[in-house]
Specification:
about 350 residues; four-stranded antiparallel beta sheet; 24 strands
Length: about 350
Amino acid sequence: MKKRLLLLMAVIFGIIILLIVIVLYDFGAFRNPANSYTSSLLIEGVKGPEDITIDYELGVMFISSDDRRARMRGKEVKGGIYTINLKDESLTPKKISPSLDFEFNPHGISLYKGALGITRLFVINHRSTGHFIEIFDYKNGQLRHLESLTGPELKSPNDLVAVGIRAFYFTNDHGIEQGVKRLIADLLKQGTASVGYFDGKSYRIVADQLDYANGINTSRDGDIVFVSETTGKKISAFQRSYTNGTLELLHSMDLNTGADNIEINEDGSLLVAAHPNMLAFMRHAKDQKKNSPSQILHFSYSSIDGFTNINEILTDDGTNLSGSSTAVYHGGRLFISNVFDPKILVVDLELE
């Protein structure tokens, strides 16, 4: 009887160890890529530049900035929106967000260019009273706040993509509150994340049961909506309905990495920043002295062939840039932002 009990305990212990190893492997604990480039420069001074996007017509980069580590320590800080004139070799960030009479902790951003020269910037804003979408008018190099939108569907918004002067899709990276339950949901991939749509009047959830929905963007023609899942380690393409905003899944691709934000190049190809070692990223979030590897993927998409021409175009062991969150490409240079540190990495690179 005693031998059977010991054998049972050994089997249970072995299963537990196996499950731990599987989780560690799945979250990239054993992945530590080296730097794939030799020369680069850093744009410093903008804290937590988590999301960046480019107005290719103007040659201007927009940057969402928030000191997340300070907020994690309970400090009251105010973030901002910055721009960089990419035609100016100094690449000097300029703060353009106006003085606001409410908390401003920006996260994902999206630039919308409409008829008659209308340009609007949509910004996810995490206030202590809830989550909001701030809409700004951009004109003559400055932002003017137009309105704040909120609703119960904004459970944990991470990124968004504008599809009209007052319409957008957004990701909820989780469907449950922060804490142990959320961590367990991530580890077990319980699919609590979702994609929502606001048509200018009301919200609706148009995709659910996702594993940490993170980045979202549309194809250049606006027909396809791309969504990345961080713990799901994949990117999906949905056909968008112009009538009611619903999404129909067309293709999904396993990226084998913790995908973050998605940017669309001027030629229509996709850039995805990723966290190859998600456990290292979790440690980096708590301690800036602990590095987290960065990874940038580049590929194409068509509704017929799906995702093609997939290339890993850059890796960083975390020494120069930890926790890559967004990558954009302009003028033969790759610009890579991150979640926490006050810098943007710039690497000369020719995309094929």
